[in-house]
Amino acid sequence: MSAKAHIAEHRRFWLGLSSVFILILSWELALTYIFPVNPFFFTKPSLIATAFREQMFSAKLWHDLAVSSQAFLWGFSLAVVVGIPVGLVMGWRRRVEYSLDPFLTAPYASPLVALAPLFIIVFGVGVTGKAALVFLLSVFPFVFNTFAGVKSTDALLINVIRSFGGGEADLYLKVILPSTIPYIIAGARLAIGRGLVGIIVGEFYAASEGIGFAISQAGDTYRLPEMFVGIIILSLIAVALTELMRKLELTVAPWRAGEEVR
Amino acid sequence: MIPKKLFAEHESFILGTGFIVLLLCAWESIPLWYTLPKGMALFFTTPSKIVASFYELLLNGTIEKHFYVSAVAFLAGLGLSIVVGLPLGLLMGRSRTLEDLLDPYITAANATPRIVFLPLLILWFGIGIWSKILIVFAGAVFPLLINTYVGVKNVNRVLVNVVRSFGANEWQLMKIVVLPNSVPYIIAGLRLAIGRAILGVVVGEFFGSSQGLGYMIASAATNYKVDVVFVGVAIFMALSVILTLAVKQLESRLASWRPETAKTF
Fold first, then answer.
1. Which of A201, A218, B20, B220 suits a disulfide with A227, CB 3.0-4.6 Å?
2. Residue ranges making up the domain that contains A8
3. Measured on CA atoms in the order A72, A75, A77, A79, is the torsion positive or negative?
4. What is the pTM of this model?
5. What ipTM was predicted for this assembly?
6. Domain B63-254 falls in which CATH fold?
């Protein structure tokens, strides 16, 4: 394949890459030659790169990431464990749906991050408060997506299982759960975003370690390169997790490829 | 007892409200059957105390003052994101080159919680209205942009070709086919954007403000005034629900021909 054909085929990739490259280059050049950089208010890619290299070899960054991930994983796992069963029951039992729907819809629609100060004050600045916040924010996408998945289960398949004498357990394990899994993964993608908000706000509010704390502390002390390193690392993690979920969604349910739920 | 027929007709309403009322009663009655230890009692409040402090704050004008500040930041940020997001989304949907050029930034920014930019914005714009407006903007612009762009991309090729065959230029094409087709997507984007904008207001006021409902919550929490925290949270909750329902109404009116998609906020 000639180089030209290759570029035409991967147009999207090359255009994207060149646009990022041009942005970084012009940012660097503009701040080196046109505007003298005031290091307290702005920074340039070369300084960020230096800070990035330093941070990579420092134990602090890894420690911060470990602290934040620990809280995130606790909250997120709890959301999975609680959210999926609640969603399943809500989807399958009409009266449970009627009882829980208004009660759960209101908090799903509202910015529950508003409770962050209270959580931090009640549970302290450690893992517990942040994990509780992550749980609170990420449990709703699991509940509602599982619920939507159960609701969209093919009635024909349910009748087939029933006709062949399958019990309640067969119904859940052979029909409802498999047809709900793509929805759950889509919910997980939303939940990751919300959970990250929880971690960051919790750590901005009050913390002594963690990636959100590192970013806000770097900002407070005018260390802009370090702050950008924190932001970039966090975006890389967020993009990686989100894309992973998207891939997983396509692998598990290729037929849902076009239906975007953001 | 409730007559059976009445119950069957309004089952969803009765069960829904009943459950909430039941929970509120249970919450209210906790202090009656269980004496909380001193440390816990500091963080505890009951629905009646929350209502009482809501009434008090409403009477002395505190809520009105903070609400006004928050509303300005919300409206300005959301307005800015509509002004920027819609045209850019339309352009991106019509131009493959622009789409490919901007895609990496939009993917990255959409996956990252934009709240991380708050310390940077506070550093640049100080504690005040501008850092709040910009964090609201950063949150709300991407759902609008992406939904507009998806709407434009999903336009029916046949319609585009028909209008083109009859000699329409790009502007007329936009007006006759592309824009009407994207309206339901844009409204759905608006619904998501409202949620993100409120989130931006809350968090922006936690850190970068000395006024507004978010500030009221944060300072009340610091002073252990738990009922005031819940007043603030309840106001935000009510506003989100009202705005979301309003946009949903608009959505179902404008897109009654479109099949229902999954519930997302």
1. A218
2. 3-34
3. negative
4. 0.86
5. 0.83
6. MetI-like fold (1.10.3720)
